[in-house]
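Notes continue from the previous slide.

Worked example: a multi-chain complex. Inputs as given:
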Amino acid sequence: MSIMEYFTPTHVYFGAGAAEKTAEVLKKEGASKVLVHFGTGSVKRSGLLDRVEKDLADHGIEFVELGGVVPNPRVSLVRKGIELVKENDIDFILAVGGGSVLDSAKAIGYGAFGGGDVWDFYCGKRKVEGTVPVATVLTLSATGSEMSDSSVITNDETEITYKRGCNTDFGRVRCAFLDPELTYTVSAYQTASGSTDIMMHTLERYFHQGYALDMTDKLSFALLKEVMESAPEAIEKPDDYDARANLMWAGSISHNGLMAAGNSNRGDWACHQIEHELSAEFDVAHGAGLAAIWGSWARYVLDTDPSRFAKLGQGVFGTDDPVRTIECFEEFFRSINMPTDLKGLGLDFDEAACRKAALGVTFQDARTIGNFKVLNTEDIFNIYMMAAGLK
Ligand code: NZQ
Ligand code: ZN
């Protein structure tokens, strides 16, 4: 039996008004000069950025701003951030925004601490050995980056656009301020996409080979049911505190390791690899890309262990029919206007596009992905073909 490792060092402040504690806590953490990192405008429009910066100033904390993080965050802006941190003797990075802003902040932290080319950490050439401490005021429930060990960055400087993740415990942020009210302004589409991503972080962990702790399976079912109940409520009524709070906490615990605790490994993760190829090349929303792929992946791998699908179906939908289980998830995705194929995602893939994407996932046939079923380039090609409606 393998040994479980569960490490969640992030100090979480959760609830209405949690963001108001930011400066006070950062002061206690020893911050004297902060890089305030944000996206393309939502935190300016909502007034959150002004409030956070005033709070920092009131606590005698200096700050430098770096905005402009786009969804699927780019390494070029990360490099700017690293320069700013070095030039200004920044000792804390504060990400105010969604997962993209936070992932960019984590990358800046690694690069400013480690020197050299920050992309090395993302393409596996070097291991992260430390970071400038990072905190976040989260504005979107989705990625779980606020408690995960992960950061995902897109390289926009090469001829082919690459999106790569870097997993390290240095990526676990020092403190996360989680105020569900800050997500009231998230659009219906981003709410649905984020909710899908939350579900997928649990589903990716649920599907694996090896020992599965029954209690963790049951926690997974509860989380999935809660998200499927709260997402439509938040879409229907964007300022529904309970629904937003459920989604926010589900996002954090879906990706902090709890949903694989006691299992013999971290899960499958093939759908994430297959999706990242799409959001790298076509800039689609990550959660929507996952919804477009998942059903095809599930049908392709179903025969590996139908009983795992049956247990999931029983726990979430009250059916032990494996095929019906897949259909129920797809029906849910469609009910919140998420795509369940590539066309719905706005991508018109032909056979050549499926082949190119599959080779991209396996780094030109240099690796396999997946754990529930190990997938090679041909398998991934078949999954893209199914998602494209060509098989
Ligand atoms: O740029 P702004 O103006 O802030 O607008 C953002 C963006 O357009 C907007 N938004 C955020 N909070 C808002 C808001 N709009 C209104 N009100 C608010 N309160 O939403 C849009 C999407 O934001 P983004 O941060 O890109 O979304 P998300 O949190 O889903 O992050 C997606 C990125 O995270 C990566 C994905 O691959 C993708 O690059 N992931 C990171 C993970 C991790 N670090 O653990 C795990 C995930 O599997 C995922 O791969
Ligand atoms: Zn994800």
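Summary box: The chain has two domains: 11-182, 188-387. Residues 11-182 form a domain with the Rossmann fold fold (CATH 3.40.50.1970).
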